[in-house]
Amino acid sequence: MAVLIELERLQRVLELHCSCCLQLFAEPVRLSGCGHSFCRGCIVRYCAGRPRAPCPLCRRAFEPRHLRPNRELAALLGLLPRDIAEGLETEQGPAPFAAAACHGRSSAAQTPGEQEEEIWESSKQQEITAETIHLLRKDLDKAKEYTSQIKSQIIKDFCCMKEYVERQERNTLVLIEQEQKAAQQKIEETIHQLTDIKAQPSDISVRQRYGGSPSRINKIILDEKLNVVKSAVEDLKRKLETLLLENYAQQLPPPVQPADLYQEPSVSSSSPEAAAESPEPANSSQFSQWAADVTFDPSRVHKHLALTAQNRRVVVSSQLTTYQPSPKRFCISQVMCSQGFSTGCHYWEVITEDSDGWAVGVAQEMIGKRDKLGRTEHSWCVEWLGPKKQLSAWHKDQETLLHKDKPLKVGVFLELQKKTVSFYSIADQEMLLHTFEVSVSNPLYPAFWLYTLESNGSLTLSQPNRR
Question: In whole angstroms, what is the distance from residue 183 CA to residue 193 CA?
Fold first, then answer.
C-alpha cells in the first residue's frame, strides 16, 4: 500500500515516461531548444534522415546533432528500486510493441515516434503540394495578365493603323471632290466665255484657243494622283503580308495537308465531245464554263514558299515553313496543285503582277524534285524572266521567245481531247500567248515556278470573271 502511495506521489511530481514509446525513459536525452526529454532510440528514429525536425510535443525545431543526455533524469531513474519501476510500468499498462524496441525488445509494429514522423512527412508533403499549386496559379495569372497586355497593345496598334488609313481615305475623297469641282469650274468658265464672244463654228482662232478639253486634262491629272494612292495601298498590303510570313512563319498554323490523291474536278454540263468541237474560246465568259477549282499542294511545295488564302496564294518566305514531311517536296522554288486532269477541258487563272520572275505551266506527276518547269519532256510553261525581262515559252529545255509584254494575269486552257494547252494574257480581252501540244498518257497538274528565294514574290490563283 505504501508503494502505491509513493508511486502516485512520484507520478504527480515527475514525468518519468517517454511521450513517444509511453514507457520509462531508456537513455533519456534532452532537446536543445525546448528542453523536452525522450528516449535516445525514440528520438533518433523520429529524426532519421532529417538534419532538422520539430519536437514531437511542442513542434519547436531542433537539430539531432545537438541532443544532450539528461543525466539528472537518468540518475533519478537509476535510484528507483526495481519493484517501484516495475510497478510504474504495471500502472502504465502493458508496453506497446514499439516501446520494446527502445528497451532492446524486437517488434514488427511502428513506434508512436515513427507514426508521428509519418504524419509529419505527410503534412509536409501536403504543404509542398499546396505551395506548388499556389505558385502555378500565380504563374497562370501572370500569363493571363501578359496576354491581356499584348492583346491590348495589338488592338491599340491596329486602331492607329485603321485611323491612319481612314484619314487617308477621307483625304483622298476630299481630293477627288476638289478635282471634280475644279474641272467643273473650268468647263463652266469656258462655256461662259464662248457664250460671251458668240464665236462662229468656222472661227479657227476660237477652235485653237479652246481645242483642248479641260475635263480631259483634269481627268489625266486626277488619274495620276489616284494611281499613286492605289499603288501605295497595294504596296502596303503586300509588305504587311510578307512581313508576317517572314517573321512569324513558325508561329502561324501550318497548312492543312490534303489527301494525296489526284482529283478530277467536275466540268460543265457540256460533254467533252461538244467541248472539243466548239470554237476556241475568245473571252472570259466562254472560258469560265470550264473553270477548275485548283489549289496549291502543301506536299509539293518548296519549304521557303508559304501557302496562304486557303492554299490559293504562294509567297516567298525568308524562313522555312513547317510542312508535313513528303518525299515529293520540291528542292527548288516550285509548287504544284493538288488537282490533276486526264480528260475534258479545264481552265484556271493566275495573278502574276506581284512577282518579278515566274513560270506558269502544267506538268506530269513524274516531274522530279529538282526538275525546273519547262526543262523536261513532261512539263510545259510560259515564263517571264531574264535581264531583259522577256516572255518565253519552254518545253524540253527549248525556249521560244514570245515578244509580248509582261502579263499581269495568265489564263491556262487545257484541252485534253485536242491534246493542247494554251496560255493567255488576261486583261480587258484575252490575248493568246502560246499553244503547246501535250502528252496525255498521265494526268497533268497545274505547276508554277518563282524566281529566286532571296526576294519577295507571290502568285495567286483566281476565279475567272464571268462577263
Answer: 15
Question: What is the 8-class DSSP label of residue 253?
Answer: P
Q: For residue 104, what pLDDT is reported?
A: 43
Whole-prediction pTM: 0.45
Answer with the one of 221, 244, 267 that is the final residue of a domain: 244
Output the pLDDT for position 258.
43
Both 411 and 450 in one domain: the answer is: yes
Domain of residue 399 covers 257-462
59: left (phi over 0), alpha (psi -120 to 50) or beta: left
Same domain, 236 and 261: no
Do both 350 and 297 map to the same domain?
A: yes
Question: What is residue 7's predicted lDDT score, i.e. its pLDDT?
Answer: 53
Q: Which of 371, 352, 357, 374 is nearest to 425 (CA)?
A: 352
Q: Is residue 27 part of a domain?
A: yes
Q: What is the DSSP string of 177-234?
A: HHHHHHHHHHHHHHHHHHHHHT--TT-HHHHHHT-S-HHHHHHHHHHHHHHHHHHHHH
Same structural domain for residues 298 and 379?
A: yes
**Shared-domain flag, residues 69 and 159:** no
Ranges of residues in the chain whose predicted pLDDT is under 70 = 1-14, 81-117, 124, 198-228, 230-231, 234-235, 238-239, 241-286, 386-388, 454, 465-467
Statement to judge: residues 299 and 410 lie in one domain: yes
* Cell, residue 40: 535516445
Which residues in 211-236 are b (16+ Cβ under 10 Å) and which e?
eeebeeebeeebeeeeeeeeeeeeee
Same domain, 146 and 102: no
